[in-house]
Write a structure and sequence with these properties.
It is built from 13 helices and eight strands. With 302 residues, it is an alpha/beta fold.
Length: 302
């Protein structure tokens, strides 16, 4: 007996659904690692004990490593992602001679309400501020990759006393450069999004309103006074390097801006160019010390 076409179609759809459900359960698509393994990897590289802190009311999940008397590097990942994006930072013995570090799982990712999207950059930034403000540190420098870039800028706008420097790595900050692809809407249709791995679903849901969020944020750039390090690859096909012109235009003339454009480099310099990351973090630290007259053992943490 011939198999009816609609039965074949139903079979194909069921197969696709089962495949997508199976893919969604794959741990590597959650962009996170098991807490104990992260702590072990950092210790094996640095001989320093790292500590994973689970999410608490008003605070994010994060990993902390380093001497708490040193300046604090606050590390903020993009979308999708998790604090594991900054494992190479937390395993860098040269940086750990100068800084303690906190890498956070942003809302919706890693171990911070995984799978529940939060598209408001203000709420994302406030959650990070609430997490780090209670940690003792002489001063705080913030590093944000991709969507983490405008989120750390938001933190500087909200509570500038907790931000003594910003490093934007492949930062997506200019609304004019933000692509508004048609397919984000269909990916958020209930049936379709139910098939997406949670990290991808959350990423899509926070990127959909990103243009409007960046437009809202524009006036706040005039309030940023801390030094800014702009790091970007000239061949970044995900976030256009023309974001640089926005930063140059919108920052106050009195704000110190350092620019490091990497010829031929793409969006993944956070992982592939640790030599540049290390150099630029140290340069940002020098700028912060020069601007504020800071010194690790002269400024008390909050």
């Amino acid at each position: 007996m011939a198999v009816k076409k609609r039965h074949v179609l139903v079979g194909i759809l069921l197969f696709c659904f089962a495949a997508c459900v199976g893919i969604g359960k794959m741990e590597f698509l959650k962009f996170r690692d098991e807490p104990g393994r992260m702590e072990h990897r950092i210790f094996e590289s640095t001989r320093k004990k790292a500590h994973f802190h689970a999410m608490e009311p008003g605070k994010l999940a994060y990993v902390q490593v380093g001497d708490t008397t040193l300046p604090l590097l606050v590390l903020v990942h993009g979308s999708p992602g998790s604090l594991t994006a900054f494992m190479s930072f937390m395993q860098d013995t040269a940086l750990l001679r100068h800084f303690q570090m906190v890498a956070v799982d942003r809302l919706g990712f890693g171990y911070s309400d995984f799978g529940t999207a939060e598209a408001s950059m203000q709420k994302q930034a406030e959650a990070i501020l609430n997490t780090v403000k209670v940690l003792p540190a002489p001063y705080r420098l913030w590093v944000g990759h991709s969507l983490g870039g405008p989120i750390i800028a938001e933190a500087a706008m909200i509570q500038p006393d907790l931000v003594q420097g910003l490093m934007l790595v492949g930062g997506s900050v200019d609304p004019a450069q933000e692509p508004r692809e048609w397919w984000h809407g269909p990916l958020n249709w209930p049936i379709v999004r139910s098939l997406l791995p949670p990290a991808f679903r959350v990423s899509n849901q926070e990127i959909m309103p990103l243009y409007e969020e960046l437009v809202r944020q524009v006036p706040g750039w005039k309030t940023i006074r801390c030094p800014v390090e702009f790091v970007h690859g000239t061949a970044d096909f995900l976030v256009n390097i023309d974001n640089l012109y926005f930063v140059q235009k919108e920052l106050p003339p009195s704000t110190t801006l350092a620019i490091d454009t990497l010829s031929g480099a793409d969006h993944f310099i956070l992982w592939t160019r640790m030599d540049v990351m290390r150099r630029d973090v140290l340069h940002l630290n020098d700028m912060a010390i020069a601007q504020y007259g800071l010194h690790p053992d002269e400024v008390s943490g909050e």
